[in-house]
Amino acid sequence: MVDTVIVRGLLRIFAGTVVLAHNITFSAWRRASVDDDHLAEILKDDRVFLEGATTDILGLCNEIGCSLPGDFMGLSKFSSIPVGSCVETHAMRTRFRKDHTQMADDAIFLLRVVPFETLPISKPILSQHSAAHEIWSRRWG
After folding, report:
1. Distance between the two ends of the chain, CA-based, in angstroms?
2. Helix spans in the chain (H)
3. CA spacing 20 to 30 A to 24: which of 32, 49, 67, 97?
C-alpha cells in the first residue's frame, strides 16, 4: 500500500498544476484586449508547459492508483495554489512567480519522502517538474 503522504503529495501537485493552469488561462482571457505581446507570449508558453505537466503528473497518479476528484472545485481543495486570477501586470507576475515557487517546493518535498527503490514513481518526472517550476518562477520574476 502506498503511503498516504505520498498519495496526498501527488494529489496536491496535480491539483496545483490544474489550478495554476486555470488561473493563467483565465488571466490571459481577461487581458486579451491589453496590448502587451511579451506578456501574452509568456502566458501562452506557461499554459502549454502546464498542460504537459498536468499529463505527466496524472500519469504518476495513475501509476500508484491515486483516486482523483471528478470536478474542478473538488480537486482545487487539494491545491496549494488558490483559485483566482489577476489583471494588473505587476500583481500577475508576483502571483504566478509565487505559485510556481510553491509548485517547485511541493515537488521537492515529494522527492525527499518517496522511497523510489520500492515505489514505481518516476523520479525524473518529479525532478523535471520541480526544475521547470523553478525556471518559470524566475521567468515570471
Report:
1. 40
2. 4-30, 37-64, 72-76, 89-113, 123-140
3. 67
Distance CA 2, CA 121 (A): 11
Hey, how many other C-beta atoms are within 10 angstroms of the C-beta on 53? Answer: 25
Q: Are 72 and 22 in contact (CB under 8 A)?
A: yes
Closest CA to 80 of 12, 7, 34, 10: 12
pLDDT of 69 strictly over 90: no
- For cell 518526472, what's the residue? 125
pTM: 0.89
- What is the model's pLDDT at position 130? 96
- Confirm if 57 and 129 have CB atoms less than 8 A apart: yes
